């Protein structure tokens, strides 16, 4: 996790540097199409600050995890590719639930865009149903894993 830790730390610091530079640049800008000189364009500046904060939150999670676990082969200078060979995890090959979840999210998004409370409600119910189906797909029915 040290690699991810360093990567997100660099991105977070870069976002804060960009936010400062962008705020300063818009403060000095004298083009009347972009506002008056001596005023900061706050929307972009705040967006860059929030991007830095969100990236910093991910960095913090990776930093805490990297302190709690042993170094992975990817984090060790003497690590070999064969050290990470083997099973990575279980990936569902024939699940239709991700498609249903995406359609439910689109339905909810359309409800938000056009501000239709009934569509928002239907979309949220559909999202919850799809998340439940995706989560419990291998606990019931013919795809049940484990001893039968």
From TrEMBL:
<keyword id="KW-0812">Transmembrane</keyword>
<dbReference type="GO" id="GO:0022900">
    <property type="term" value="P:electron transport chain"/>
</dbReference>
<feature type="transmembrane region" description="Helical">
    <location>
        <begin position="7"/>
        <end position="25"/>
    </location>
</feature>
<protein>
    <recommendedName>
        <fullName>cytochrome-c oxidase</fullName>
        <ecNumber>7.1.1.9</ecNumber>
    </recommendedName>
</protein>
<dbReference type="Pfam" id="PF12270">
    <property type="entry name" value="Cyt_c_ox_IV"/>
</dbReference>
<keyword id="KW-0472">Membrane</keyword>
<keyword id="KW-1003">Cell membrane</keyword>
<dbReference type="GO" id="GO:0004129">
    <property type="term" value="F:cytochrome-c oxidase activity"/>
</dbReference>
<feature type="transmembrane region" description="Helical">
    <location>
        <begin position="96"/>
        <end position="116"/>
    </location>
</feature>
<dbReference type="GO" id="GO:0005886">
    <property type="term" value="C:plasma membrane"/>
</dbReference>
<keyword id="KW-1278">Translocase</keyword>
<comment type="function">
    <text>Part of cytochrome c oxidase, its function is unknown.</text>
</comment>
<dbReference type="InterPro" id="IPR021050">
    <property type="entry name" value="Cyt_c_oxidase_su4_actinobac"/>
</dbReference>
<feature type="transmembrane region" description="Helical">
    <location>
        <begin position="122"/>
        <end position="139"/>
    </location>
</feature>
<feature type="transmembrane region" description="Helical">
    <location>
        <begin position="45"/>
        <end position="66"/>
    </location>
</feature>
<keyword id="KW-1133">Transmembrane helix</keyword>
<comment type="similarity">
    <text>Belongs to the cytochrome c oxidase bacterial subunit CtaF family.</text>
</comment>
């Amino acid at each position: 996790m040290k690699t991810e830790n360093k990567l997100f730390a660099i991105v977070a610091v870069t976002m804060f540097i960009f936010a400062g530079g962008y705020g300063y640049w818009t403060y000095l800008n004298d083009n009347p199409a972009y506002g008056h000189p001596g005023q900061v364009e706050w929307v972009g500046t705040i967006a860059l600050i929030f991007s830095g904060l969100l990236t910093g939150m991910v960095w913090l999670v990776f930093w805490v995890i990297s302190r709690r676990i042993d170094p992975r082969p990817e984090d060790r200078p003497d690590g070999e590719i064969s050290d990470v060979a083997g099973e990575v995890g279980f990936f569902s090959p024939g699940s239709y639930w991700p498609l249903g979840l995406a359609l439910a999210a689109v339905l909810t998004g359309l409800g938000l865009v056009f501000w239709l409370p009934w569509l928002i409600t239907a979309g949220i119910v559909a999202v919850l149903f799809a998340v439940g189906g995706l989560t419990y797909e291998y606990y019931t029915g013919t795809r049940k894993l484990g001893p039968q």
